[in-house]
Predict the 3D structure of the following.
Amino acid sequence: MNATVAKRLPKNYKLVYEILRGAGHGVHFTMGEIYAHAKRKRPAIGFSTVYRGIARLRDLGWIDEIELPGSDSAVYELKGKPHAHFCCGRCGEVADVHYQLPARTIARLAARTGGRVGEAMVTLRGLCRRCSV
Amino acid sequence: MNATVAKRLPKNYKLVYEILRGAGHGVHFTMGEIYAHAKRKRPAIGFSTVYRGIARLRDLGWIDEIELPGSDSAVYELKGKPHAHFCCGRCGEVADVHYQLPARTIARLAARTGGRVGEAMVTLRGLCRRCSV
DNA sequence: CCCGACACTGAAAGTCATATTCACTATCGG
DNA sequence: CCGATAGTGAATATGACTTTCAGTGTCGGG
């Protein structure tokens, strides 16, 4: 099975991971930002490699890909517990919000749709502390 | 200022609105689908006009634009009460779910972020009834 | 040490939904 | 009738991915 996990990650993919791990939980980068960081560390690296690194890490479950509704680009962060996101409509900042829909609520909604619910995403939109003054 | 609201809507924009109103609440169309419908009713209409009609109706608050996380195209529906959406990961169907985060919860989360929260989006992902068998 | 298979790589090109530009044309208040 | 403004269709641009292509490692046998 997932022998990929066991195998050592290619050094470029590792670099991508280190960029996110170095930033820590709760920090969100777009693909472009990650590429910029990677380029600084290893100028010869190409965009495709960073792109593929992100895809691999996502598939391995080491990082989370977050698609904010209404934003044209996804952001990435270290894998963590499920949580909600707050997105500032002015400066675009994305912040983690330690919250998730109660399992009971999800179950109730799932029953209502008649289908099976895999995940529940909660996104808040508004103005962050600095932009709301 | 917004005299636009008072003015009668251009007939093409009205056509776009009628397409959504005719479908009723809870029906979701992509821009391409709306364009196809419009084209059938008025073959000479251009894509840009439909596009601009949707933008206008959205700005007027007559329709809602729903950007599903992870989907590459937005869907539109008649303006209605805030609600959650369920999105089938297999067939792509989007269904309204009559639910919204309790105001108290939103207030609590807003306090936690220190900013001001305008809206809270809840999106469920999973398999719809037909796809989950 | 050499080989073949296969993973990795960078540059370039492709995709797709959404936005915008351009050169008209229709409409409205005077 | 007139000038200003809004509306229009076709064509083009944008931006974020996504894939293709032609190499370039890399590693376990032989």
Summary: Chain A is about 40% helix and 25% strand.
